[in-house]
Design a protein that fits this description.
- The chain has helices at residues 32-35, 53-64, 87-93, 96-99, 111-128, 140-157, 175-182, 200-206, 229-238, 259-262, 271-274, 331-367, 388-392, 397-406, 434-453, 455-459, 472-477, and strands spanning 132-134, 165-169, 186-190, 211-216, 242-247, 266-269, 289-291, 303-307, 310-314, 383-386, 413-414, 423-426.
- The protein is α/β, with parallel strands linked by helices.
- It folds into 3 domains: 1-66 and 468-495, no CATH class; 87-344, Type I PLP-dependent aspartate aminotransferase-like (Major domain) (Aspartate Aminotransferase, domain 2), CATH 3.40.640; 353-467, Aspartate Aminotransferase, domain 1, CATH 3.90.1150.
- The strands form 3 sheets. It has a 7-stranded mixed sheet with strand order 1-7-6-5-4-2-3, sandwiched between helices.
C-alpha cells in the first residue's frame, strides 16, 4: 500500500483519548458473570484504537469518498447498464403509503400497492410483447432460472421429457449456462460467426429432439443485433424447443423492438438495469419474467390478478412451478420501475434506446482509430474493442484498465465476452452527455499514446490511487482481512 493522504485509525491512537463520554451508571450494576457464561468472558479488553470523535468521523468520511458510483462519475461497464437513477423514483419509493405497509396485511388494506404492481406487470408485458408477467424474481439470474423452470415444466406437462439440453451462444452472459445447469439442463454451445452473430449453420447442427430451449440476448453481448432472429426462432420452434430472452440488454430496444415479436417465448428483465433501480453493491435486484400464452399456467404462484372487486392473489394454479421468493418480489424496486415508466411514457422509453445507441456508436467511432475493433459495423447500446494492438507493445487490457483509474474513471468491463481477445466492453448509456463521452475518449486515446511512447507508465498503473496495484492472485488466495500494526502498543485499551 502506498503512503496514504491520512494515517490509518490505529496509527492515530493515543492512550487516554476518547471519542465519547458516557453518563455515570445510575442503576444497580449486575456482575458480568451473572449475565454471561464464564467461558465467553474476555480476560482482557479488546485492542481498540483510542481516538477522538473528530478523528473517527474524518476516518470514515474519508473512506466513504473512495466509493465510486454512477452519482460520482462515469461508469462505462459493458453489459451492466450502470446509468443514472432519477431521484424522483427514489422519492416515490419513500412515500409513506408505500413504505409503511406490510406483506401480511389483508388484501383489502393494500389495494393501492397491488394496483401499482398489476399496472407494472401490464406495462412490462406490453413493452416485451408477452402475455403475462410475474414480479416475483429477486434478480436477473433468478429470473433466468425461473424462465428455464417454466420451460422445463411446459415440456414435462406435454410428456416431452427427453428435452434435456439448452443451447447457449459462446458470447453469452456467464449466468446463462449456470442457470441452465441449476435448472437441471445440460448446455450446448453455439458458435459466433465472423459477423459477431449466432452461426446459423452451427445452430442447425446442435438443435434437435433433445433441445429444450435456446437462451439468447438480443442485442448480444458484443452489442450487435441478431439480424437473423426470426430464422433462429423458426429453427428452435420447428424442433419443438422454446426461445428464451435474456433481457440484460433491453436498454437498446425499448419502444423500438419487442422480444415477443421476434419469436421469444420467455423473457426476463433487469429492473435494476433497464428501469433505473439502484444497481451495484449487491442489490437489491429485480428480475420479472414474462411469458407467451402457452406458458402462463406454469408461472409461479401466487399470481397477481385483477377481478371485479379489485386485486387479489391467485393461488389456484395447479400447474405452477411453485413460489420462488417470499412475498412478491422486491417491492421498492418495483415502485422505482413503475415511477420510471410512468414518467418517461412510451415516447420517452423509445428515446432512451435511441440515445443509448447514438452514444455507443459515437464513442466507438472516436476510439476505433486507436484500438482494434473486431467487428466493424454499427453497434447498439454497447460495443467491444480489443487491446491486441497495445498488447504487442507491452501493455495488456488489464494495464489499460488500471491506468484509467489515474484519469479518474472506472474501467469498462474487460476480458468479456471471452471470444474477443484482450476484450474491452464499453456501455456509455443514454444518460451521459457528449462532454462526458469526449472526456472519457480523450483519456482512452491518451493511454493508447502512452503505450506507444512509454508502456511502463501503463504497465505499473495505477499511480494516484490510495492503493497501488495488487497481486491479484495472492489477494484472492491469501487475503489479509484484519489490520495489524507491529508498532502499536499491545497494552489492552481502557474501556
Amino acid at each position: 500500500m502506498r503512503e496514504q493522504e491520512h494515517t490509518l485509525i490505529f496509527e492515530e491512537s493515543a492512550p487516554g483519548r476518547r471519542g465519547s463520554v458516557l453518563p455515570d451508571l445510575d442503576v444497580e450494576e449486575t456482575p458480568v458473570s451473572e449475565l454471561i457464561p464464564s467461558e465467553f468472558i474476555r480476560e482482557k479488553a479488546p485492542d481498540l484504537p483510542e481516538v477522538s470523535e473528530l478523528q473517527l468521523m474524518r476516518h470514515y468520511t474519508s473512506l466513504s469518498t473512495r466509493n465510486y458510483g454512477v452519482d460520482s462519475g462515469f461508469y462505462p461497464l459493458g453489459s451492466c447498464t450502470m446509468k443514472y437513477n432519477p431521484k424522483i423514483n427514489e422519492e416515490v419509493a419513500k412515500l409513506d403509503g408505500l413504505t409503511n405497509i406490510h406483506p401480511y396485511q389483508p388484501e383489502e388494506q393494500v389495494q393501492g400497492a397491488m394496483r401499482l404492481m398489476y399496472d407494472l406487470q401490464t406495462s412490462l408485458a406490453e413493452i416485451t410483447g408477452m402475455e403475462e408477467v410475474t414480479l416475483q424474481s429477486a434478480a436477473g439470474a433468478q429470473g433466468e432460472w425461473t424462465g428455464l423452470m417454466l420451460i422445463r415444466a411446459y415440456h414435462e406437462a406435454n410428456g416431452d421429457t427427453n428435452r434435456t439440453k439448452v443451447i447457449v451462444p459462446d458470447s453469452a452472459h456467464g449466468t446463462n449456462p449456470a442457470s441452465a445447469v441449476v435448472a437441471g439442463f445440460e448446455t450446448v454451445t453455439v458458435k459466433t460467426d465472423e459477423r459477431g452473430l449466432v452461426d446459423l449453420e452451427h445452430l442447425k447442427e446442435v438443435t434437435g429432439e433433445d433441445t429444450a430451449a435456446l437462451m439468447l440476448t438480443n442485442p448480444n453481448t458484443l452489442g450487435l443485433f441478431e439480424e437473423d432472429i426470426v430464422e433462429m426462432a423458426e429453427i428452435i420452434h420447428e424442433a419443438g424447443g422454446k426461445l428464451y430472452y435474456d433481457g440484460a440488454n433491453s436498454n437498446a430496444i425499448l419502444g423500438i423492438a419487442r422480444p415477443g415479436d421476434m419469436g421469444f417465448d420467455v423473457v426476463h428483465l433487469n429492473l435494476h438495469k433497464t428501469f433505473t433501480g439502484p444497481h451495484g453493491g449487491g442489490g437489491p435486484g429485480s428480475g420479472p419474467v414474462g411469458v407467451k400464452a402457452d406458458l402462463v399456467p406454469f408461472l409461479p404462484k401466487p399470481l397477481l390478478a385483477k377481478t371485479e372487486n379489485g386485486y387479489t392473489w391467485d393461488y389456484d394454479r395447479p400447474q405452477a412451478i411453485g413460489r420462488i421468493k417470499p412475498f412478491y418480489g422486491n417491492f421498492g424496486i418495483n415502485v422505482r420501475a413503475y415511477s420510471y415508466i410512468r414518467t418517461m411514457g412510451a415516447e420517452g422509453l423509445k428515446r432512451v434506446s435511441e440515445l443509448a445507441v447514438i452514444n455507443a456508436n459515437y464513442l466507438m467511432k472516436r476510439l476505433e482509430p486507436y484500438y482494434e475493433a473486431p467487428y466493424e459495423r454499427y453497434c447498439k447500446h454497447e460495443f467491444v474493442l480489443s487491446g491486441k494492438r497495445q498488447k504487442k507493445l507491452g501493455a495488456r487490457t488489464l494495464d489499460i484498465a488500471k491506468r484509467l483509474l489515474d484519469y479518474g474513471y472506472h474501467p469498462p468491463t474487460i476480458y468479456f465476452p471471452m471470444n474477443v481477445d484482450e476484450c474491452m466492453m464499453i456501455e456509455p448509456t443514454e444518460t451521459e452527455s457528449k462532454e462526458t463521452l469526449d472526456a472519457f475518449a480523450e483519456a482512452m486515446i491518451a493511454i493508447a499514446k502512452e503505450v506507444e511512447k512509454d508502456p511502463e507508465i501503463v504497465q505499473e498503473a495505477p499511480h494516484t490511487t490510495p492503493v497501488a496495484r495488487l497481486d491479484e492472485t495472492t489477494a484472492a488466495r491469501k487475503p489479509v482481512l484484519k489490520y495489524e500494526n507491529p508498532d502499536h502498543e499491545k497494552e489492552p485499551a481502557r474501556l
